[in-house]
Amino acid sequence: MRKVHGPALKALRGALGIPAWKFANDCGISAAYLSNIEAGRKQPSEEIVTAMARRLGETKDSITYVIPEVGAA
Fold it and tell me: pTM of the prediction?
C-alpha cells in the first residue's frame, strides 16, 4: 500500500512556487482538502495522486511511501 507523504508534497509544490489554491484547482480538489493531505490527515485516491505527480512533473514515487502489508514477511 502506498500513502502520500504530505510534507514531501508540500515541499515540492513550494519549491516550484505553486500556490496551494492553484495546485488544488489544477488537481481537481479543494484547497482545504489539499491542506489535509499535506498535513497527513487525509489520503487521496490513486487518481488524485497521479494528477498531483503529473502537475509537479514528478513520479508518484517522489510524493508517496510504502506501508508494508500486515503479516507480510
Answer: 0.90
